[in-house]
Amino acid sequence: MLRDLYEQLETLLQRDLTVYRGKMPSKDELHRLKITGQLFITRNFLSTSEEKCVANAFSGDGTIDDDKVSVFISIQIDRREMQKKLTAFLRGLSQIKNESEVILPMGIVFRIDSYEEDNSHSKFSVTIKMIRGKDE
């Protein structure tokens, strides 16, 4: 099993990575995600997936609620920064079959690159990008 994890990590560190996260934040929290160019830092470990369908399920997939909204987040990760951060690739080890879970560490700085909402205003998509140290 450790050999498999090592081989997965070696393969993944050869390219930039896009992972996905679904969540149902409050409408107030959503307003903070609408500001393109805004920077923010993760304060906790962040569970993401390499699979869009998994993130869609966690986003509520367009569920309409009085207090919460459905948000699908695409996260672009620079491989050079990923090599510096402790990142856990849990492909095949998660509780959810075929989740392809990737755990991102605390303290990563991201920039909001884009924000879109669907025509029914029931689902929102946000693209964020990991900021590379001194380069940005």
Protein architecture, described:
The protein has a 5-stranded mixed sheet. Strands 3-6-5 form a 3-stranded antiparallel sheet. It is globular, with a radius of gyration of 15 Å. The chain has 136 residues and is α+β, with helices and mostly antiparallel strands. It has a single domain, classed as Toxin ADP-ribosyltransferase, Chain A, domain 1, CATH 3.90.176.10. The protein has 4 helices and 8 strands; from the N terminus they run αβαββαβαββββ. The termini are far apart.
Per-chain topology:
Layout: H1 2-12, E1 17-23, H2 27-33, E2 39-41, E3 46-49, H3 52-58, E4 70-77, H4 79-84, E5 88-89, E6 101-104, E7 109-117, E8 123-130
Parallel strand pairs: 4-8
Antiparallel strand pairs: 1-4, 2-7, 3-6, 5-6, 7-8
Short summary of the structure?
This protein is an alpha+beta fold and 136 residues long. It contains 4 helices and 8 strands, in the order αβαββαβαββββ.
Considering the chains and any ligands shown, give keywords for the structure.
8 strands; three-stranded antiparallel beta sheet; five-stranded mixed beta sheet; 136 residues; alpha+beta
Widest sheet: strand order?
Answer: 1-4-8-7-2
| CATH T-level fold name | Toxin ADP-ribosyltransferase, Chain A, domain 1
Question: Looking at this structure, what is the CATH superfamily?
Answer: Toxin ADP-ribosyltransferase, Chain A, domain 1
| Broad shape | globular
Average pLDDT, rounded to a whole number, is 81
Structural class of the secondary elements? alpha+beta
Could you spell the SSE succession in H and E letters? HEHEEHEHEEEE
